[in-house]
Amino acid sequence: MALLQATDLCLEIRQKQILKNVSFSIEKGEVLGLVGESGSGKSMSALAAMQLLPEGATLKGSISFLGQEIVGLEDRKMNAIRGRDVSMVFQEPMTALNPTKTIGEQVAEGIRLHTRVGWKEAYAEAGKALERVGLGSDRTTMHRFPHQLSGGQRQRVVIAIAIACGPKLLIADEPTTALDVTIQAQILTLLRDIVREQDMALLLISHDLAVVADMADRVAIMKDGEIVEHGATTSLFSNLKHPYSKKLVEASSHCPPARRKPLDLTREPILSVDELVRSYPLPRRTFFEKRRRHTAVDHVSLRIAEHQSLGLVGESGCGKSTLARTLLGLELPEKGSVSFLGKDPFKAGGHERAELRRGIQAVFQDPYGSFDPRHKVSRIIGEPLFLLRGEISAKEAEKRVHTALESVGLTISDGEKYPHEFSGGQRQRIAIARALVTEPKLIVADEPVSALDVSIRAQILDLFADLRDRLGVGYLFISHDLSVVQAITDHVIVMNSGVIVEEGPTEEVFANPSHPYTRLLLSAVPKLEDVLKRRLNS
Amino acid sequence: MSQGNSSLSMRPRRLARVLASKSFMVGAVMASLIVIAGVVSFFWTPHAIDALNVSKRLLPPSSTYLLGTDQYGRDILSMLMIGARTSIIVALIAVGIGIVIGVPLGLLAATKRGLLEEGVMRLNDLIFAFPAILSAVLITALLGPGIMNAVIAIGIFNIPVFARVARGGALALSSRDFLLAARVAGKGSLRITLEHVLPNIASLLIVQATIQLSLGILAEAGLSYLGLGTQPPLASWGRMLNEAQTMVAFAPQLALYPGLAIVVSVLGFNLLGDGLRDLLDPKLRRRIA
Questions:
Q1: Phi and psi for A299 in degrees, rounded to 5?
Q2: A420 at B interface, C-beta within 8 A
Q3: Pair A48, A62: CB distance under 8 Å
Q4: DSSP letters of A162-221?
Q5: Burial letters for A49-64: b for 16+ Cβ neighbours within 10 Å, e otherwise?
Q6: Could you count the other beta carbons within 10 Å of the beta carbon of residue A522?
Q7: pLDDT tens for each residue of B250-277
Q8: Domain segments of chain B: what residues?
Q9: Mean pLDDT calculated for residue range A52-74
């Protein structure tokens, strides 16, 4: 008998069909991977299994856990199951923990609730759980607060809470999406070990095919609230039947076409940065202490040739965004110099400054936060034309907006809509159109595809490649995602804690990483083909 | 994702939500009753109120005097209408003072940060530290009683309220990428504030203004009751209450009517503000999400 058996789940939230006849089952000690893009209903399936669906949701079908029907089970009885027999690891470790309680208390809380032991014993158990997730059980760890831990450590605490009562089923909803790649590898290994050791079942939900293929025994691929294909991992991936699953696999390893025009690296670079330094003051620990500073960018130098596309890779906090902001003129450099088109943008004044700014535009990460919700798309795209005020007529400006819209694959009538009427991928097209409208030489793109689903990501990468060939724009492509950088750039820089640790032509760096940090980064990213090859061989 | 017709279906849904919001509807009805009475009083009142006619004092309600007359023979309904006008004008100007001075201060504090922000916000704290109505009494006592001084006294205490709301709203927006995008487009802080920040915090300010309006009406009534606000012959609810005080044993209706008028207007504007907050806020949240 299966540990958890979900049959014909149909879920409606406010008259909207979220799940359609979803059935899946998990055996004891088995890992089931649930893959799909945003809105495919994978998280809702997990919440249904926990009976934690949002208000106004109506669920039909049946979920049996250890032979007991839990759909429609009263909350009091469900509480006994939740946390003890079934527990959950959430995506965002910061918001999943209570900031006002120590981690020891938070782990012990669940133990006390379900086993009715005293605080002392619960604390001892909590110590064991924390030790199990690699945090050590000494008193100092137990007494720390979530904000004193790093993202990876926080996720370990969340896992400790989940496994503290020895559940039979663990549900992990995108457990590593908010983490850096090197941390992701650690957390996945931890999850795998725990599940194997305690013979737990794991329902792993992810948008990342490689992660799921690496971890799961069986995989179910979801689209629009339906499971389109499922089966044992290796046989499923080697013999995909449904067109959507094929498309998904293709998109995840998608590589946009290579550059058509060769680069001329002998010419004067359009952007050169020399020994740039930027630091931030840290808050004082005591009133009398001298203010310490955190150096975000530490003596960084780089060159970008005309039409070149440069990748900047690094994990969160490595200073890549600070560097980007300085290049965009949003922050002053402390030391060092920046020269764009042969001029220093921080010394140039008035007209010249506007001209330099026009040549370097930006695409931001968040396709939802980067537009004023009260402005129409045409006004949003036309905003950088402010740099050309007095030089072009209103008619010319309108023409430029139309050209920009068309070059990113939108129609002119889209300009009359508001940003909330567009999907994530379309919004990122709008953001690119806004960057193109001044006909810049260089676009600084800060994590432009990391918030997008894989199929949309492939389209946007193609668009970047197309614009590179068609309009000859250069890119500074900032990303934590190595595959994205590999796909689109000619040259790559690897940054770690404010310092460039390695740089070189993209192919060379990826084929022959010389710095240990680069090697670590590369080995930490699971790749679908490699994973499948390894599984077939073992 | 089906997003094609979301703009089309937006409007009827919003109207439905407005009608469904009880506090908004009740508040709107009550507030508009007061506003209409005040506006009508500019052109027409049932009777003139500056003519004292002692022979007609303390008449019960009749077809000529709908709510009866007071101890000087003035028509109570007419006085209430003119009182509504006074209250609303005083409260409106006071809120205006708060917005015109407070909002720019708050936005300035949010954009410039640093020492200037500290200065502005501590000044706000200083004003907040004084009990508003007592200080208004002090100001009007110092400057002399009168409607202008009452407006100034109430207005001063609206400044920090709006400064805080504006600063809070602007800071919440400050991490959004569209402000960065505007800076990449070469726009200065002033232009960004006017084009992007102000329109996006307008709903917060409208809600706050509605609530401050009700507080302004209450403050005006309080000052006039103490004889420091509106001076005769202009009618005011606060003064009507004051004058009714001596008669309360044998003509309690004289105190009842202005009291009710104050309750209806304060409750009305407060409910309206709450309703507006409910209507505007979720929309704002959904747009962000």
A1: 50, 65
A2: yes
A3: no
A4: HHTT--SEEEEESTTTTS-HHHHHHHHHHHHHHHHHHT-EEEEEES-HHHHHHH-SEEEE
A5: bbbeeeeebebebebb
A6: 18
A7: 888 888 889 999 999 999 999 998 888 8
A8: 23-40+66-288
A9: 85
Q: What is the pLDDT of residue B12?
A: 56
Q: Burial level of A23, CB count in 10 A (0-12/13-18/19+)?
A: middle
Q: pLDDT tens-digit profile of A400-425?
A: 999 999 888 888 998 898 888 888 88
Looking at domain B23-40+66-288, which CATH architecture does it have? Orthogonal Bundle (1.10)
Residue B277 confidence (pLDDT): 81
Contacts of A328 in chain B (CB under 8 A): 184
Chain centroid offset of residue A448 CA: 11
In sequence order, the β-bridge partners of residue A65 are A4, A68
For residue B107, name the pLDDT band (cuts at 50, 70, 90). Answer: very high
Cα distances (angstroms) measured from residue A231 to each of A44, A240, A532: 21, 10, 14
Mean pLDDT throughout A226-234?
89
Domains (ranges, CATH) in chain A? 4-250 (3.40.50.300), 271-283+292-359+440-537 (3.40.50.300), 371-439 (no CATH)
Across the interface, whether the CB atoms of B176 and A357 are under 8 A apart is answered no
**Closest-CA residue of chain A to B284:** A373
Q: Which residue of A has its CA nearest to B185?
A: A384
Q: Kindly state the DSSP code that residue A493 receives in the 8-state scheme.
A: E
Q: Which of residues 174-203 of B touch A (CB under 8 A)?
A: 176-178, 180-187, 195-196, 199-200
Beta bridge partners of residue A31, listed in sequence order: A202
